[in-house]
Amino acid sequence: MNVLESFRISWRNIREHKLRSTLTTLGVIIGVAAVITFVTLGASLQQDIVSTVAGGNAATMYVSAQSPGDSQVPSLGGAGQVVFTEHDVERISSLDGVAVAVPESGIAAASMSYNNSSVARQWVTVTSPGYFRVRGLDFVAGRPFRRGEREVVLNRPAARMFGGGNVSVGENVSFTRAANGEVLNATVAGIIEPTGGGSVLGIQQGPQPQIFAPSDPYYIRTAYSPNVRDQQQVFGRILVMADSTRRVEAVQGRVYSYLGQSSDARSHKPDTYEFRVTTQDQIIKQVEQLTSTFTAYITGIALISLIVGSIGIANIMLVSVTERTREIGIMKAVGAQKRDVLQLFLLEAVLLGVLGSALGAAVGLLGGYLGARAIGLPLSFQPVWFAAAVLVGIVVGVLAGLYPAWDASKTDPIDALRYE
Q1: Strand ranges in 170-236 using DSSP code E only, listed in sequence order
Q2: Three-class secondary structure of residue 71 per DSSP
Q3: Which of 49, 331, 414 has its CA nearest to residue 197?
Q4: Number of other residues whose CB lies within 10 A of the CB of residue 383
Q5: Which of 6, 25, 110, 215 is most exposed by smallest CB count within 10 Å?
Q6: CB of 392 within 8 A of CB of 357?
């Protein structure tokens, strides 16, 4: 019996038992759909986190002092051990291969006001004017703030968060320092495009308000500088941009050398903390490793459904062998060989597996799209997963149908013909 004839008979049997075939493939559909949905959501989450965390450009590095147990991914809000003085920023800026180095810390604001409208609990990032160049932030209006001036820069969500209307360049806002209740006034110097989402887990949808201010005159946290022998502003992080992507590793090494040998930060950081100079490539690799592990764990749970589906195919194929015992006897009586019967039942199991996998892939893609849209993630899907789904269907069909097909092939034709 040739393969085409086996295919025709197998397909006819599947069509004659539509309800049974549908219920049989349902387990595979659910299993494959669950796997593809979670893989799609995992890839979409990875893309969202990378785009959010890895702001700036490929030549950017993040200098911080962290506990060995802390996450390898730099904090987005400038948080971290506050150890870097103005002297450290200046010395790092002067290193060979460094295009610009900027400090980053923050002020907790109890509220921010504009035009008699207030918004509670805002975080104000304090830095220097070069920060926007390092982070690759684009201005839609205005310009960067100037050092020493009472000016701020808002992103679009921050400019639109007040009930009294949208803030424009040149208008005045105020914020209240949470630490002592001091009210600080500022003029809006510029408005930038928002970056990333409100949560790296995609729970909150859309970019969140961000406010940027110059460290002088707003930042008041200071520490003693052993090199300058005076009080200086002290920051939680330094952003460094190399003058070329080809020199990133060399600059990274020079920054590490300075921090370990002659920086003020050496005397300010706890003994258990260590300096980290993280490049964009390192951030992306760390994020991909974290999200891949998470996706693999969730996908492994979803594979249980696929195993249940394969057991369902095996079960229904055993039932089919029992129901068609007399048919098997007639086939063998007219000359069918063991391999013909084996081929017939194995092909039927493979068809059920492939049908379930193909439909499951389509359902999984739809589930991934709806899930990503519901939690505000960018959809990331690779067409190769469809091919993988079909391959899974073939493997499931072969594994689930092998024993029933073998059982059918060894049926004695005389006993089969007597079977009622």
Answers
A1: 172-177, 183-192, 211-214, 222-225, 230-235
A2: coil
A3: 49
A4: 8
A5: 110
A6: yes
